[in-house]
Write a structure and sequence with these properties.
heterodimer; A: 429 residues; alpha+beta; D-Maltodextrin-Binding Protein, domain 2; 10-stranded mixed beta sheet; 17 helices; 17% strand; globular; B: 309 residues; mainly alpha; MetI-like fold; 2 domains
Chain lengths: 429, 309
């Protein structure tokens, strides 16, 4: 009896532990050889905003195909994440000592990730600032520099355009050939374009910010840029100014006072309301499908425009996707080859179509892809007139506070002056 | 009387007696069977908890990379308005979800403890939200709270009331989440109360009835005391789950608008994984655990008082 009980218990415990051990995963070993063609191992790649469906898989496979032309024997293990979970993935991978070999991220991530050691300098691998300035639009180079060294390569630009419906302009008595150029005009036009039912509910949004709650950051940066402002000068915050207050106050007035759009409202497809005809004017994507599978004939009714800064120069908000080599990778050369594969012109186009962007290479300006739709053409023409959202090693701290702080002003809980002062303190920490 | 006097002596003999071989084997087998669970608890609960406490005294941005800074994180938290607001929102959420949910669950359990038609169907119906993924639940409620085409505004319109922005209105968003929290937790509470109700002696109720007690008197003097152990269990589990609410906030509001639904767990997530401030987030976690402990202790105290009475 005694022996039976002990044996049974030992068996159960062993089986339990064995099951637990067996279920644990193991990462592939890596082994980089001197010759790229002979190198074997596994490259771990984290890529945000690649859809987990067939389209995302196909786009990723196209990168792998280009990479395999140089490294045919290396496996690639992708990790698809939304931007909101990117930091979580990177921080846990670093904490566990299994950092990614290749990290793709938004432009604002480069300096904080370089500071954390999640990205390594590409200078020793021969990637220079001069090379980037010749190959991509100049405004995308400063965000990928940290301590004067290159830490990532720009892949795709993600601008936000402004668009309006010509028919809605005509219906409101506005000249379709004269879009607004200043914030003041924009607000005035939005008021004229807003249509409400008898109960006061909006049936046609006057100006769509195309922003869910806590995400008016890019819109603010664009408005601020139209007043001549830049968010940061290097790592120094430069947004707590009269222009910053005016830009934020204007958003608040348009949303909460004029009610020319519904705060945080998005349609179920999360597409810009101006492209679906639900808004007369608003922020729009730099890619539009004018075929019947897309918005079809509505394309003819859409016109794109940008606000102008005090010098009369158009201003366009632009984010962007970059890629760099992981700080702890044992395969830096292979990782760089993968980053270069992401920069391949055909890959840039595929990522652009999937992630509402446009290729970032200067050479792509005349490509068939860019000319294939009016939004991409317009966006690419203005990639030299951009304002962006990035700002040094503490940018991720700042980014987490930025959206909710803007909300507090837009919803009337705080003044623009107080919110921007508080944000400035976060940026200075 | 003799037996009573002899009892302590025999108990003393039993405790001083050496366990037999079979008893020792049983004890050994018990420990061996318990070992996997203990190892699991040690590795996945005790060690992370200890690491969280240690991390809270560091300035680590990423786990394992930081220096000791003493109580600086705690001092900073004391003046962090975002953290204090998150703590307040969590307490409001708990205060809304726990007592209201418990009260409704008792009413439903009492109703479903009667011999009504389709009783099994209704019991299942109330339990469905418990076994449904929170993400699916949140998706349904997102539609209900949709400002332009949602069911909630359609209902308001029926009564001629003005539309609400629900989850995008900073004054309404947290109460709107409390409603979802109450609805989602109802089934679990109801099933525990139902089990407790079925454990209350029918004889006691019958005796009270024969003594002329009204339905209210029977409920208050017989049923309610009989539910005391269930109250404590439901209270403890409800407080713990209310403090841990995360997925619902993550899917529906993302802590917004303007941090109106930024509860503690979401703030910890933001600090750890958006701002990459693991040390600071760990300090928040420790404070959250202390609060949960205090609330559970208060619940235990009230339970003792009920027993004493």
């Amino acid at each position: 009896m005694k022996r039976n009980l002990t044996v049974a218990a030992l068996f159960t415990a062993t089986a339990f532990l064995a099951t637990g051990c067996a279920s644990g995963g193991g990462s592939g070993s890596s082994d980089s050889g001197g010759d790229a063609g002979e190198a074997t191992g596994t490259l771990r790649v984290v890529v945000p905003n690649f859809s987990a469906d067939n389209e995302g898989q196909a786009v990723f496979q196209s990168i792998v195909d280009v990479f395999h032309e140089t490294y045919p024997n290396m496996d690639v293990q992708p990790d698809f994440v939304p931007y909101d979970n990117l930091n979580q993935k990177i921080s846990t991978s670093l904490a566990s000592g299994q950092g990614y070999d290749v990290v793709s991220a938004g432009v604002g991530w480069v300096q904080p990730l370089a500071d954390l050691g999640a990205l390594q300098s590409l200078d020793p691998m021969g990637v220079t600032q001069d090379e980037l300035e010749e190959s991509v639009y100049p405004s995308f180079v400063p965000p990928v520099l940290f301590d004067d060294e290159v830490y990532a390569i720009p892949i795709v630009a993600n601008p936000r355009l402004l668009a309006y419906s010509k028919s809605a302009f005509e219906a409101a008595g506005l000249d379709p050939a004269q879009p607004p150029k200043t914030l003041e005009e924009l607000r005035e036009y939005a008021q004229k374009l807003t249509i409400r039912d008898a109960s006061g509910n909006i049936t046609q949004t006057g100006f769509d910010f195309w922003a869910p709650p806590s995400n008016y950051r890019q819109q603010f940066v664009n408005f601020f840029g139209s007043l001549g402002g830049q968010m940061f000068d290097g790592e120094e915050p430069t947004f707590n100014t009269d222009a910053g207050v005016e830009a934020l106050t204007t958003i608040k007035e348009m949303v909460s006072d004029d009610k020319t759009s519904l705060y945080g409202f998005e349609n179920t497809a999360k597409t810009s309301l101006v492209s679906t005809g639900e808004a007369a004017m608003g922020f729009a994507s730099p890619y539009v499908d004018c075929t019947d599978a897309g918005i079809g004939a509505k394309c003819d009714d859409l016109e794109y425009f940008l606000l102008e800064d005090p010098d009369g120069e158009p201003v366009m908000y632009t984010g962007g996707r970059v890629a760099g080599v992981g700080g702890d990778t044992e395969n830096p050369e292979a990782a760089l080859a993968f980053v270069r594969a992401m920069q391949d012109p055909s890959v840039q186009e595929k990522i652009s179509a999937m992630d509402v962007g446009v290729p970032i290479s200067i050479d792509a300006a005349d490509s068939d892809f860019v000319k294939s739709n009016p939004a991409s053409t317009f966006a690419t023409e203005h990639l030299g007139n951009t304002v962006s959202e990035y700002g040094g090693a503490t940018f991720l701290d700042f980014r987490a506070e930025f959206g909710p702080s803007l909300d507090a002003v837009i919803l009337g809980d705080q003044t623009a002056e107080d919110a921007l002062s508080a944000l400035e303190q976060v940026a200075l920490q | 009387m003799t037996a009573i006097k002899e009892a302590p002596a025999s108990r003393g003999a039993a405790t001083s007696r050496r366990p037999s071989g079979v008893e020792r084997a049983k004890s050994r087998a018990g420990w061996i069977l318990l070992a996997p669970a203990l190892i699991h608890s040690f590795i996945f609960i005790a060690v992370p908890a200890i690491i969280a406490v240690v991390l809270s005294f560091t300035d680590a941005r990423i786990v394992g990379r930081g220096g000791f800074i003493g109580f600086d994180n705690y001092i900073e938290l004391a003046g962090d308005t975002k953290f204090l607001r998150a703590l307040g929102s969590t307490l409001i959420y708990t205060a809304g979800v726990v007592p209201v949910g418990m009260a409704i669950a008792i009413v439903i359990a009492l109703a479903l403890n009667q011999n009504i038609r389709a009783r099994g169907f209704f019991r299942t119906l109330f339990y469905v939200p418990v076994v449904t993924s929170t993400v699916a639940v949140a998706a349904v409620w997102l539609w209900i709270y949709n400002p332009s085409a949602g069911l909630a505004n359609q209902v308001l319109a029926l009564f001629g009331l003005e539309r609400s922005s629900w989850l995008t209105d900073p004054d309404i968003a947290l109460p709107a989440l409390i409603v979802i929290g109450i609805w989602q937790g109802l089934g679990a509470k109801m099933i525990i109360y139902l089990a407790a109700l079925q454990g209350i002696s029918e004889e006691l109720i019958e005796a009270a009835r024969l003594d002329g007690a009204s339905r209210w008197q029977i409920f208050w003097n017989v049923t309610w005391p009989g539910l005391a152990p269930a109250h404590f269990f439901v209270l403890v589990t409800s407080i713990a789950s209310s403090f841990q609410v995360f997925d619902l906030v993550f899917v529906t509001t993302g802590g917004g608008p303007a941090n109106a639904t930024n509860v503690l767990t979401f703030d910890i997530f933001t600090n750890a994984f958006q701002r990459l401030q693991s040390g600071y987030a760990s300090a928040e976690t420790v404070i959250m655990l202390i609060f949960v402990g205090i609330l559970i202790y208060l619940g235990r105290l009230s339970q003792r008082e009920t027993k004493d009475n």
